[in-house]
Design a protein that fits this description.
single chain; alpha/beta; Rossmann fold; 2 domains; 10-stranded mixed β-sheet; 13 helices; about 15% strand
Length: about 300
């Protein structure tokens, strides 16, 4: 087993984000932890079905080959160690290579993100995601009701990001929330040449950019910026990405149009957004996650 290298993409993920444990989770949330553990043990030989983030993880792991291990996936879970056995077995049955796992038996696991050197944390637990974001890690609550990823692009990891409060800071969003659209457009036009501050998911986008550069014939990465911005506020977003020396393959400046239908056409393996209404609509079409940061999630 190797140690983490500086250029390896590390994804920490909860069991419910990776596998479909919704039936088991209903028992756990009902307050009977012992019954939950017993059921998981009874189903030890029964592999769990893929969950909402399964396609994303499966494709990212395809960047590994005999010459290099470019991606590491670690289970970071509130499960107990006994239930952890089923998670590892489910990974093996689904050809998902899992070597490391941290199981905290009901306690928040986010504090282990730092020693894991994680670039992304995906969880179905809203509190864990908020704590991870507050600690400076890209994190999203997986919407377990989302539709599964499509299978039209087996050789591409396709990821879509919202802009403000996700890739970028919520600086501009705060102007919009407090002063309205006209003030927002004027603010962004006047600052078009000034890059936006980094958002929580900028490190993940940078890590994906490095992963793409490392390359493998088996898998590519295609990214999209899907934002409610419209002209003239588009320019600052584009120039910010240029200043970062990171490009996205597609950019959609939708001016407030619902994002779901556009995402359905892009067919991402995962979509990240900070606004619950956008995430709820997107989840009807694609695997989606809520980034619980920025002004729209305060209070």
């Amino acid at each position: 087993m190797s140690v983490f290298s500086d250029d390896r993409l590390v994804v920490a993920i909860s069991s419910r984000a990776l596998f479909n444990f919704e039936e088991e989770n209903r028992i756990f949330e009902g307050g009977d932890a012992q019954a939950y553990m017993t059921l998981q043990l009874q189903r030890l030989e029964q592999p769990a079905r893929p969950g909402i983030a399964f396609s994303l993880i499966q494709k990212l792991l395809a960047f590994n080959d005999t010459t290099a291990q470019r991606v590491e996936v670690v289970i970071l879970s509130r499960n107990d160690p006994v239930s952890g056995m089923r998670i590892f077995r489910s990974g093996n049955a689904n050809r998902i290579k899992l070597e490391r796992g941290v199981f905290t038996q009901g306690r928040s696991p986010f504090r282990y993100l730092k020693p894991l050197r994680a670039h992304l944390f995906l969880s179905a637990n809203a509190d864990d995601v908020r704590e991870a974001l507050a600690a400076g890690f890209p994190a999203a609550r997986v919407i377990t009701e989302s539709v599964q990823a499509g299978d039209n692009y087996p050789n591409e990891v396709r990821i879509a990001f919202d802009g403000d409060a996700v890739l970028f800071s919520d600086e501009a969003e705060r102007v919009y929330q407090s002063e309205g659209l006209d003030a927002f457009q004027q603010h962004e036009s006047s600052k078009a040449l000034q890059p936006l501050p980094d958002g929580p998911f900028k490190p993940l986008l940078a890590a994906l950019h490095r992963l793409q550069a490392a390359g493998t014939p088996a898998m590519k990465i295609r990214t999209a910026l899907v934002t409610a911005r419209s002209a003239p506020a588009h320019e600052r977003a584009i120039r910010t990405l240029m200043q970062w020396n990171i490009h996205v393959d597609e950019a959609m400046f939708l001016g407030g149009l619902p994002k779901g239908e556009f995402l359905r056409e892009f067919e991402p393996d995962f979509f990240f957004d900070d606004q619950t209404r956008h995430v709820a609509h997107a989840a009807q079409h694609v695997p989606s996650g809520h980034v619980a940061g920025g002004i729209t999630n305060e209070g």
